[in-house]
Amino acid sequence: MQITHVIDTHVHADHPSGGADLARRVGAQYCLHESADIRVPFMPLRDGEEIDLGNTRLKILHTPGHSAESMCLVVTDLKRGVDPWFMLTGDTLFVGAVGRPDLPGRARENAGELYASIHEKILTLSADLEIYPGHFSGSLCGMGLSGKPSSTIAFERRWNPMLALGRDAFIEALADVPPKPADMERILAANRGPRAN
Fold first, then answer.
1. How many structural domains does the chain have?
2. Is residue 106 domain-resident?
3. What is the pTM of this model?
4. Is the pLDDT of residue 43 over 60?
5. Residue 40 lies in a domain
6. pLDDT tens across 88-105, in order?
7. Could you tell me the CATH number of the domain that includes residue 98?
């Protein structure tokens, strides 16, 4: 199997990515949303764009809120049919929780964007679509994350307490977040790449 694309759903603030290094090592494209602010070369992905991988197709959903460049990947396995099978939600939507909006700053504005991304993009998809988030319990990227590593749109719509809130209540609920990761600035700097001389 040949690796052709290495995709980060966003620039990570809580752990080193390794995405750019992996892409370089295997000769693949390193991919992020076009709005990503990094200093290493990457293939910019746009909202609605599709990546054809033979029997598999990825559709990019730009879902800002956790970070400006956050995106989800909707995956279709053409051997199963033309309807999407699952979605990699990164740090936008977790099982039982949502991503924290405060890491890049502008927490209230980002929380409003996160609400729109979830309600106007993710929750409009098929109820039986499986979701696979970037983290589960123990991560600092959200509050109340379940230990369950996957879910469905229908299950989250029914049981995720954040999805039952209106926009204003959603923003208020996200105002109370745990402390930022201790090495956040160092990790972000490493994931963005070296500064030009």
1. 1
2. yes
3. 0.88
4. yes
5. no
6. 999 999 999 999 898 777
7. 3.60.15.10
